[in-house]
Design a protein that fits this description.
There is one protein chain. It is built from twelve helices and four strands, in the order αααααββββααααααα. The protein is mainly α and about 260 residues long. β3 and β4 form a beta hairpin.
Length: about 260
């Protein structure tokens, strides 16, 4: 594991060296943003597949409505019938989760890389890099202790919080609208037929705001990954779902936090 971390540290360092003439002291931060963009490009085919899956689910709405009428007095049979329909049509109710799940290794890799004081038995030189005045290995608590909320480091975090809040508000409004229009179309069928989906549906619009807590408590390098990835997700979903019925797009809102 330490050898792998060393190789990854060298890779990120090489990217930062290439960006240094443009970004100077913030080259490592720019390298992390670029690394995040590369990860999202690799995951993009999964996001497109997820969008196609949601469109397929939208086409199943009439059939699901018939099943609801047929098994209205037997929830267990209804759930089984809907799951069998999804299986027969090769549609996964949770397909929207895949892009987020495949990004987790990259996030944890950055988290550990900028949380350890040593890599491969040597001092971790990456911890000396900064985004403006804020160390990439530092956290918001460190910024508050060194200058407070409006100190040089604190202002960096305020900027990140502002970006996250703007993206979260955009996602919140979009998801609420999509889910409101999805309810009369699909009759809430997915939430009832997929175990646990009902509870997830209720908290779904608020999931993007949880990113604020992530940014506040993880190393700044990992926070940059989260902010970049979340912003990418908002733009990507707006494009991929632009020509889809609100009901279908709302069903894929689990990918919002990705």
């Amino acid at each position: 594991m330490s050898d792998f971390m060393s190789v990854f540290a060298d890779l990120v360092g090489s990217i930062a060296d290439l960006l240094e003439p443009v970004f100077h002291g913030s080259a490592m931060a720019a390298a992390i943003v670029l690394f995040t963009a590369c990860v999202r490009l690799l995951v993009h085919p999964l996001s497109r597949a997820s969008a196609r899956g949601q469109k397929a689910r939208a086409k199943l709405s009439p059939q699901i409505a018939e099943l609801r009428k047929k098994h209205s007095k037997n929830p267990e049979k209804l759930q089984k019938a809907v799951l069998e329909l999804h299986r027969a049509e090769k549609v996964s109710p949770l397909s929207g989760c895949l892009p987020s799940l495949f990004q987790l290794p990259a996030f944890f890799l950055l988290y550990h890389l900028f949380s350890n004081s040593s890599i491969g038995g040597e001092a971790n030189a990456l911890l000396g890099h900064k985004l403006f005045e804020a160390p990439l290995g530092g956290r918001w608590a460190d910024a508050l202790a060194d200058g407070g909320v409006f100190g040089a480091q604190g202002l960096v975090y305020l900027g990140l919080f502002a970006i996250v809040a703007a993206v979260a508000t955009f996602n919140f409004r979009r998801t609420k609208k999509q889910m409101a229009m999805a309810a009369p179309v699909a009759g809430g069928s997915d939430a009832q037929q997929v175990p646990g989906m009902g509870a997830i549906t209720k908290v779904m619009p608020f999931m993007s705001f949880m990113t604020l807590f992530t940014v506040a408590f993880v190393p700044l390098a990992a926070a940059l990954y989260v902010v970049t990835s979340t912003t990418w997700s908002a733009v990507e979903r707006a494009v991929l779902y632009r020509d889809m019925p609100y009901g279908a797009a709302g069903a894929g809102a689990l990918a919002t936090a990705g």
